[in-house]
Amino acid sequence: MTSPDAELEAIVQSGLEAYRTGLFFEAHERWEVGWRDEPHPVRKAFLQGLILVAAAMHKLTRMQSPSGAVRLLGKAHARLAGVPDGTGGLAIGLLSDDIRRAASAIERLASEGKTELDAALLPRMEAHDEVASSVPASARPRA
Fold first, then answer.
1. pLDDT of 105-141, one tens digit each?
2. How many other C-beta atoms lie within 10 A of the C-beta of residue 79?
3. What is the tens place of the pLDDT at every residue in 2-27?
4. What value does the mean pLDDT of the chain take?
5. Confidence at residue 143, expressed as pLDDT on a 0 to 100 scale
6. Rounded Cα distance, 36 and 138, in Å
7. Distances from the Cα of 131 to the Cαs of 28, 114, 127, in angstroms?
8. Contact 80, 35 (CB under 8 A)
9. Which stretch of DSSP H or E encloses residue 29?
10. For residues 91 and 126, is the Cβ–Cβ distance under 8 A?
11. In degrees to the nearest 10, what's the CA dihedral of 35, 38, 43, 46?
12. What is the largest CA-CA distance in the chain?
């Protein structure tokens, strides 16, 4: 029998495979399967945040709707606000910062009549332990 954390990480990884290759709708669908069955409110909010990020990127890249993407990113940011760093194995702080950065970039592009977001501006979904280990010890918060 697997633990709820292991199950959550497996669902996250499944969606990440699609997200990282630009298959945003597929990522959304994979995370939604887990979200529907998730009883824990924080993990449910976490999955919904990921779903909203993927939906925003789909809205921007496939549907050419920057305003819809910005709206969905705002909702994603709100859902992730109470989610602890490391949930699902991800660096939530990094993701939240990237969501704000992407929303600002999309708004700028939209004001120029563009919808092509530089891939470097996509919200990153990185492993918590990788991000934490890349921060120098002197810059890490003290416990």
1. 999 988 888 777 788 889 999 988 876 554 444 444 4
2. 19
3. 787 889 999 999 999 999 999 999 99
4. 88
5. 34
6. 41
7. 24, 32, 6
8. no
9. helix 24-37
10. yes
11. 10
12. 53
What does the angle CA 19 – CA 24 – CA 28 come to, to the nearest 5 degrees? 95
Tell me the C-alpha distance between 88 and 35, whole Å. Answer: 12
Which residues lie below 8 Å from residue 125, measured CB to CB, with a gap of 6+? Answer: 16, 19, 20, 50, 53, 90, 95
Residues near 89 by Cβ (< 8 Å), separated by ≥ 6?
A: 9, 12, 13, 127, 128, 129
Tell whether the model's pLDDT for residue 61 goes beyond 60: yes
3-class secondary-structure state, position 89: helix
User: How deeply is 115 buried, as exposed, middle or buried, from its count of CB atoms within 10 A (0-12, 13-18, 19+)?
Assistant: middle
- The pLDDT assigned to 116 comes to 79
Where b means 16+ CB within 10 Å and e means fewer, 39-60 reads eeeebbbbbbbbbbbbbbbbbb
